[in-house]
Amino acid sequence: MTLIEKLESNQRLTLEDGIALYDMDLLDLGIYANKIREERYGRKTYFNVNRHINPTNICKDVCQFCAYSSSRKNPNPYAMSHDEILSTVQNSVKNGIKEVHIVSAHNPDTGLEWYLEVFKKIKEKYPQLHVKALTAAEIHFLSEEYNLSHQDIINMMIEYGVDSMPGGGAEIFDEEVRKRICSGKVTSEQWLDIHKLWHKANKKSNATMLFGHIESRIDRIDHMLRLRDLQDETNGFNAFIPLVYQRENNYLKVKDDLTAQEILKTYAISRIMLDNIPNIKAYWVTSTVKLALLAQEFGANDLDGTIEKESINSAAGAASANGMKQNEFVSLIKNSGFIPVERDSLYNELS
Ligand code: SF4
After folding, report:
1. Which DSSP string do the residues of 36-98 spell out, in sequence order?
2. Alpha-helical regions (H) of 257-325
């Protein structure tokens, strides 16, 4: 069966098929990706009203692509107190957020309680708020630092009020590339195992892929297939989030930015390859809002949220430091010919 015949009959694609998709014309590829997207979601584009908080940038790890960690080019180390975090949450709740998204660097000096207690405090004060927190990389860091198992940390997260796990720390699963960009951090196998444990606790998570640095197209498809395999087993991923690599202020010497064409092809291919992950998120923070909106024609059905403030990607050059206003977000989606749908963190439609 040819690739086109497989696409026409919605067959599951192999690694070789995925690589061949990159050789297709962008607009042809977009037609297949958009067909799947429209069958599931019509012209709806999802977003949520959320707040990102990055409580510390002090990190024991030294990922080559990172511009956020204070141990490298960023000379301003910080660690927020719980009171500062709670006051940020309080202000954001007034603005109508439904989710708080908390991810940090790997700070060995703050203590396990600093990481966990704040979730409990947020939940006690705002039980309606969805707490999305701790990437698999952070869970692995905490397990090593405190000599606990991944399962122990997961049990504590649930006990302290974490509702779902973000998809960060996946970067790219290929072991050789991983060694060059984030040696010492959670391994690919550990990342997948941690998500599996989380899903087995009946909880949902997301999965990211950092692309546009030194990885190959093969590495991207391999990354998607490892996620697809786990999703077949657990069905715990809500969304796949391809993150466009930001080039500034880090030690990974990447000469050129990805072309818009390559980025759009990657969204479209994600939609086609990941037949079992319901949502493909064009995270506007790393792709720019305009390209994230265009990606809605190429298989993506989600833009993430208003976020209010963002420190990790903006440190590397993304225009995301101040988030987006909800009405601005809604207008942009409408003006692009889509129906804006506010969702909660688990993709239930709100309005
Ligand atoms: S990417 Fe995360 S783990 Fe790696 S250096 Fe930056 S903050 Fe630390």
Report:
1. HHHHHHTTEEEEE-EEEE--B---S---TT-SS-TTTT-----B--HHHHHHHHHHHHHTT-S
2. 260-273, 284-287, 289-294
Write down the pTM of the prediction: 0.95
The tokens describing 50, both together, are: 């959320």
Two tokens, residue 179: 């060694």
Angle between the N-to-C axes of helices 136-145 and 150-159, in degrees from 0 to 180, rounded to the nearest 10: 110
Say if residues 265 and 230 touch (Cβ distance below 8 Å): no
Distance 69 CA to ligand 1 centre (A): 6
Q: Whose CA is nearest to atom 7 of ligand 1?
A: 105
The pLDDT tens digits of the residues spanning 158-167 come to: 999 999 999 9
Which residues sit with their C-beta closer than 6 Å to ligand 1? 59, 61-63, 66, 68-69, 105-106, 137, 182, 185
Among the listed residues 255, 254, 253, 257, the one whose alpha carbon sits nearest the alpha carbon of residue 244: 257
pLDDT above 90 (res 259): yes
Q: What is the DSSP letter of 79?
A: B
Rounded to whole angstroms, the Cα distance separating 128 from 118 reads 15
The conformation of residue 44, written as its DSSP 8-state character, comes to: E
